[in-house]
Write a structure and sequence with these properties.
- One of its GO terms (molecular function) is kinase activity.
- InterPro entries: Carb_kinase_PfkB-like, Carboh/pur_kinase_PfkB_CS, PfkB_dom, Ribokinase-like.
- Keywords: Kinase, Transferase.
- This is Sugar/nucleoside kinase (Ribokinase family).
- This protein has 336 residues and is α/β, with parallel strands linked by helices.
- The chain has a single domain, classed as Ribokinase (UDP-N-acetylmuramoyl-L-alanine:D-glutamate ligase, 3-Layer(aba) Sandwich).
- It is 39% helix and 21% strand.
- The protein contains twelve helices and 14 strands.
- The strands form two sheets. It has a nine-stranded mixed β-sheet with strand order 6-5-1-9-10-11-12-13-14, sandwiched between helices. A five-stranded mixed β-sheet has the order 3-8-7-2-4.
- Helix 3 packs across helix 10, helix 8 crosses helix 9 and helix 10 runs antiparallel to helix 11.
- The chain starts with 5 loop residues before the first strand and ends in an 8-residue tail after the last helix.
- The model has no long low-confidence stretch (mean pLDDT 95).
């Protein structure tokens, strides 16, 4: 087995988030499904952008946020994701590298342009995403850095990658390489609408052992098994994969491994500002702990800590050092 260089490799849609506040009436007037990721075309992207209020731009994308979170904890992270050779692509590349993440995926010309997501945050902190995938759909097997996969303890990918077809081939190849080198693989179910589109494929990834660790929230777990019985859904997801982490908003998270269930309470917060990136940062904290050999309970606490921090700010990537926050909380031990 080769020497490990990276703790976590994440693979996802490389997206620049454009975030603005709005009220519920704005969502209704513009036909936006609240608290979901809505895929849109270039024309609608232009329309929504023209109707946005004051906005901030922040490099995002689910798996990119997770990689940034792992790096903020002090872990070694890598990322695969496709951008175009344009202004937003350069912003994304600069931002993720500045976080200390290895990112060497080559840009894809200037068309289609780099993906962007118009994110509308309502007063209750919920985010409604409207995503134009653009260059993301160009991610394919040729973008797989086999040596990086082989040298990563865990390779993690987002369920959203099942929307652009060639990305599936890249993911399957990464899983093959990872397992051939004794590594583990992980995925997030991304959102309940994504689960609805690819339920049978996601279940097959889990049951076949292609994926070892699964991240989901309550709604995604219920959607996966088409049930309203959350306890039953937890029992089923535990049976279908080696390890599952299911987040439950203010109720914390449930970690499931075989017949073992570990409930981890949510981290106390002062004020809910924006839920963008909460699940991504939970995965970052959990995987950071997991790759450092921490107990599953500690992993859950690290995930809840990271999620609790990011929901108190605007934007999906930590503005403060998660390592410092972890040390303060007694969850991260600095080297002697």
């Amino acid at each position: 087995m080769t020497d490990t260089t990276f703790d976590v490799l994440t693979i996802g849609n490389a997206i620049v988030d454009i975030i603005a506040r709005c009220d519920d009436a704005f969502l209704s007037d513009n036909g936006i499904t609240k608290a979901a990721m809505n895929l849109i075309d270039a024309e609608r992207a232009e329309l929504l952008y023209s109707r946005m209020g004051p906005a901030i731009e922040a490099s995002g994308g689910s798996a990119g946020n997770t990689a940034a979170g792992v790096a903020s904890f002090g872990g070694k992270a890598a990322y695969f994701g496709k951008v175009a050779d344009d202004q937003l692509g350069r912003i994304f590349t600069h931002d993720i590298r500045a976080q200390g993440v290895h990112y060497a995926t080559r840009p894809k010309g200037t068309f289609p342009p780099t993906a962007r997501s118009m994110i509308f945050v309502t007063p209750d902190g919920e985010r409604s995403m409207n995503t134009y995938l653009g260059a993301c759909v160009e991610l394919g097997p040729e973008d797989v850095e086999a040596d990086v996969v082989a040298r990563s303890k865990v390779t993690y990918f987002e369920g959203y990658l099942w929307d652009p077809p060639r990305a599936k081939e890249a993911i399957v190849e990464c899983c093959r390489i990872a397992h051939a080198h004794g590594r583990e693989t992980s995925m997030t179910l991304s959102d309940s609408f994504c689960v609805g589109r690819y339920r049978s494929e996601f279940l097959d990834l889990m049951r076949s052992g292609t994926v070892d660790i699964v991240f989901a929230n309550r709604e995604e777990t219920l959607s996966l098994y088409e049930t309203e019985d959350f306890d039953a859904a937890l029992t089923r997801i535990a049976a279908d994969c080696k390890l599952a982490a299911v987040t439950m908003s203010e109720e914390g998270a449930m970690i499931l491994k075989g017949s073992e269930r570990i409930h981890v309470p949510a981290t106390a917060i002062r004020e809910l500002t924006d839920t963008t990136g909460a699940g991504d940062l939970f995965a970052a904290g959990f995987l950071y702990g997991y790759t450092q050999g921490r107990s599953l309970e500690d992993c859950g606490h690290l995930g809840c800590l990271a999620a609790g921090i990011v929901i108190q700010q605007i934007g999906p990537r930590p503005l403060l050092s998660l390592k410092d926050a972890g040390v303060k909380a007694g969850l991260v031990v600095e080297p002697a």
